[in-house]
Amino acid sequence: MGRAYEVRKASIQKTGAAKAKLYSMYAREIYQAAKTGGTEPTSNAVLKRLLERAKKEQVPSDIIKRAIDKVSSGADESYDEVRYELFGPNGSTLIVECLTDNVNRSISSIRAALNKCNSKVGSMGSASYMYDHVCVISFKGLDEESALEALLNEGVEIEDIETEEDSVVVYGAPTDLYAMKEAILKVLPEVQFDLDEITFIPKDKIILDGDDLMYFNRLLTMLDEIEDVQHVYHNVEL
């Protein structure tokens, strides 16, 4: 309960470097989605979702178009989705997702950051069991009861539902994201989803201070500067 704030990403600073990282991230994701599922958003739910999110993030249309055109032109770039589970200072944990064309470069860059921040790489599963892997949607226009009815009518099982201010927040299995959205769209065709993502939410959070907090913040900054890093989830209360 009361978890919606946990999955909201911090605002990206409007610097040139931050914008370049954001645009590069979306260009890779859009290219990969179009290459895998086709270039038509109407028949590619993953691509459709990415395009909606990119527009919300004000990614320039020419960057989006170039990524899709690259697939149409027959360009054959190859990106791998890789996930790393990290242990930071004093019981902190992180899950880092990358989309990369060079896995060796990615892990080398991450290890370099860890070495400067009193942190280390864990084995697969060593940290992720401490997180819930869920999809989350948030929207206005329905109350909890009506939203739940709409979801159940379409046979969509959910893990949790709550109201935060005037928004309904629904949590489900990662594979049910599109089914959840479609169920709500059937009863609320003009709905705008304020939150629409697959994420990791820590089951418990910790508080750091002193040098531990300093090292952790440094690690977040260094990870954000790595181009291959797409998403970072952690268990620290900031």
Give a structural overview.
The protein has 238 residues and is α+β, with helices and mostly antiparallel strands. The protein folds into three domains: 13-72, Integrase, N-terminal zinc-binding domain (Arc Repressor Mutant, subunit A, Orthogonal Bundle), CATH 1.10.10; 80-129 and 203-234, YebC, transcriptional regulation domain (Alpha-Beta Plaits, 2-Layer Sandwich), CATH 3.30.70; 131-202, Alpha-Beta Plaits, CATH 3.30.70. The chain has helices at residues 16-37, 45-56, 61-72, 103-115, 144-153, 177-187, 210-224, and strands spanning 80-87, 93-100, 120-122, 131-139, 160-164, 167-172, 195-202, 229-234. A hairpin with a 2-residue loop joins strand 5 (160-164) and strand 6 (167-172). Helix 1 (16-37) packs parallel to helix 3 (61-72) and helix 5 (144-153) packs across helix 6 (177-187). It is globular and about 50 Å long.
